[in-house]
Prior knowledge:
Oligomer: single chain
Strand content: 5-15%
Number of domains: 2
Strand order of the largest sheet: 3-2-5
Structural class: alpha+beta
Amino acid sequence: MVLQGTPGVQTGEAYLESRRGDLFIFPAKTAHDQRCRGRWRTLCVLFANTGRLIEETPRVVGCARESRIRRWMEELAVLHSSSVPAIVSDCLLLALLTQIGHFEDSLKTMAALPPALAKAVRFLEQRAGGEVDAGALVRHAGVSYSRLGALFRAHFGCAPLQYHQRLRMDLAKRLLLNPYASIDEIAGQAGFADANYFCRLFRKVHGVAPGKWRREAMARPPAAARPGGVLC
């Protein structure tokens, strides 16, 4: 990950340019030569990709706006030089690789959408934890609400604010995986001032109350195996 400067990497016949916040990804045994004019600083993580966690092709991913990826990379460096058990850094590495894969999938999805729709989706995703003003949404997308509604229905089968509701409900499911957070706290983090309304809406969308959904989710065994990795 590029923390400072604009290093480039030559790999085979391809030359990959970068800017601050970008992420270079190289499969094992890929010959590559980093070059940069001026000061530069990067963070490197080496790991064994024991599963299809991320695509194995040399590339650069623009992650400047994805703060979690940079933050988790930096936290891996701290963990590597500390005395915490290895399983802690292994779990963070798994979370990092999963997030990178999710982020790349999102980029591919956005690239296939009409520009106005892609802008609107990003706008809603960035505000999944709160209310959204329809006027602000259409101003950001640059089209009328009727046009935006037609785009959402064509691609997602629902209106823009219904899509935003789905995002909030998905956020609520992720928050419910924290066993120490109360339902009231989760409702607030998902942008609902009324916890009772949140519970009714969650049941309507997911077919089960939030508390029962959490108990059932906690009872399921984890699906992913831990990757091994080292940081240099």
